Sequence to fold (386 residues):
Amino acid sequence: MAFDDAYGALTDHADDARWAYGTGFTDPLAGVPADLPDGVDRADLAAYCLMLGDDALIMSHRLQQWVTRAPELEDELAIANIGLDLLGQARLLLTRAGTAEGAGRDEDDLAYRREAHEFRNVRLAERDDADFAQLMARLLVFTTWRLALFDRLSGSRDPMLAAIAAKGVKELTYHRDYAAQWVVRIGDGTPLSHARMAAAISGVLPLAGELFQAHEVELRLAGVAVDPAVIRGEFDAVLAEVLTAATLEPAELPEVPATGRDGEHTAALTEILAEMQELARAVPGGAW
Amino acid sequence: MSDEIRHEWPLFEVFVRAKRGLNHVHVGSLRAADHRMAVQHARDLYTRRNEGVSIWVVLSSDVVASDPDDKAALFEPSADKVYRHPTYYAIPDSVPHI
Fold:
């Protein structure tokens, strides 16, 4: 059997028996109707997909920056895997945003040809991490919130959004477990590691408040989007359980405006975009 | 630094059972602080390409191996016992799947 490329061979289901391991790859969106559900505002759905897609895209880039800098080889691969999972979520969500918008923009247009003020990610996703404890604290908050959100979103009235969320739930369950184990290990470790994790948690909490400020788009998309108020209880319970196991103080989330959702970002996002978009801007339309 | 601090995580051996495989097969080794982390790392290192449905990890120091110096006494006595192989016997045509 001849294939044009190696990937064609890997995804060929009919001839699975040639492989000792693997294959059996599946398309999570196979058979999911791409039409927009009735009565849903296109602009609102596009904005909502952009929010969730940008969260994943920017968080993924921050994780990718840890490759070659992780404390252990095994953790470097784990962090890269998590970054790749989130990049996959970003691709599907940005594609959906482009479809809903209906202006002909694809995932690359949205990822590489927007300015910082057009990004809709929460500020939590863009912050730089000074050490591994800060990365794990931020990953715990991000994945605890996103898992609770995607769990509800898998029942969305938009079948495409529901399918993307259902795929993401399995990935995020692992991401959250990975981050939680490290927060507990570092928190319940030596006096030095405990102090570092306590500082990391108190440093990330001001950014977590933004996750629960309902945006008008989220409220208008009832039945399609998830109202963050619905997942607050699960978020608080999971975080409390992990922090208790890590012998850390319980978390208090400050009330802060959801500025990232309206395109107000820190200088950190500008730095990320300068790196992430450099090649695409230098070689427009380049393909390899 | 006190002597109690380990500067390197212990080594684990990883066994993965493939979808169509009946037994777990040794695929490699990794370092981890404990067994739970070893399973997590094994998932990240050895099942990224859809390889496995089950993982075992064992501390490398718990593996008891035969001594290479005993190779002659352990393995060579079986070298001339050709009758232990099914190919030694004539297979009747009515028995197709041996």
Observations:
- Residues 11-88 of chain B form a domain with the Ubiquitin-like (UB roll) fold (CATH 3.10.20.520).
